[in-house]
Design goal:
Elements (H helix, E strand, L loop, with lengths): L23 E2 L6 E6 L2 E6 L3 E3 L4 E2 L15 H7 L1 H8 L4 H13 L3 E5 L1 H18 L4 E4 L15 E6 L5 H12 L3 E6 L5 H5 L2 E4 L12 H17 L3 H9 L2 H7 L2 H14 L4 E6 L2 H17 L2 E6 L16 E5 L5 H12 L4 E6 L8 E4 L7 H19 L18
Parallel strand pairs: 6-7, 6-8, 8-9, 9-10, 11-12, 11-13, 13-14, 14-15
Antiparallel strand pairs: 1-5, 2-3, 3-4
Helix pairs in contact: 2-7, 2-9, 4-7, 4-11, 7-8, 10-13, 11-13
Length: about 400
Amino acid sequence: MSELLITEYFLSSDISSFLEWTKKVIYLYDYDIVIADKSGIRIYNLIEGEVSRPVDTVEWDAEQIKKGGFEHYMLKEILEQSETIQRAIQQDESVVNRIVDEIRRAYGIFFVGCGSSYHACLTGSYLFSKIAKTHVNVVLASEFENYEHFLTDRTLVFAVSQSGETADVLEAVRAAKRHGSKVIGIVNRMGSSLTRESDEFLLMNAGPEICVLSTKTYTSQVALMTMLAYALAGKYEEGIKKLKGLYMDIYNLTSRSMREHLKKLAEMLVDKEHIYLIGRGLQYATALEAALKIKEVSYIHAEAFAGGELKHGPLALIEDGTPVIVFVAKDNEKKILSNANEVKARGGFVIGVSAERHEIFDYWIKVPECGDLNPIVQIIPMQILAYKLAVLKGLDPDKPRNLAKSVTVI
């Protein structure tokens, strides 16, 4: 007995838009054109003519793209981080070892990304230096063309992108390929252009991130950078153990009591025109990412500085009541608190992010001291603060003005 088979096709730029109906997906390549009619679909490539593309299966679940009772995706995704960091480090060890071998063979290493991914790259550069005694160059993807002259067939380029479709990152990858350089992708979306164009890649395994702002994918990127640094130092198991040990710390940092504590701070800051943030080393990279979160979702001008740079200009911005968020770690405590004192002496309102309360703080956000893993635990309260500021201002944190989730234009 014959049976009529009805086939449906969904055409979309975003996998999450059709996950409710199917997990089967055909990824299009550059210059592909799809013709869809009642008889099905045909794919033509402007260079190759008619082509066949494979059908892949998406591992994401439809439940992951639902808000699940949360008012906004941003809050939901912030609260998922105790789980997503654990998934990020669930990697095939043989792939990790191959990447480590490539790092050891390389003559010149670049970390390349945009926005939050760039800040993850900067964090990674500190971690590679501190843990693995290895130098890497960190470059904004949009500026990478200015470094193309250094690329050779011995260069290794790490391209970092949540979507794997960021135009500037893909341009950097193609520049690397033109010179025979090898490319390692760190990406969240399987089947993306970056996964196809990389020689090796690691998936963030964060699941769909619907909010335009990067939260869980940022910490996943940092977790992967940490894992690679430990692996390069011959301490892979130690690194994995430390990252697994973050589970309860992150759970506590996203608790209701912490969110209420940060809401009180947001109420103090919501009408401010400027917020400044300072840190040293790993905390400087965290300050940059925290400033980005605040400005892109609350539209408050937020700017980060390396603590030692305050006296070279930024102190002129401090006046009575100016809020300054200070990121403190055990290994830079003395110096950064000295910088905070410079702010305090000029009337600044000092907000400390640290494991211990110091007299200089006007407001204190308690975080555990986690050494090399401080970039993860210290950014999470800042993500929540940014969210609370947006909500208090009546803004939609999932869709900040003028921004897109995947930047596919240069």
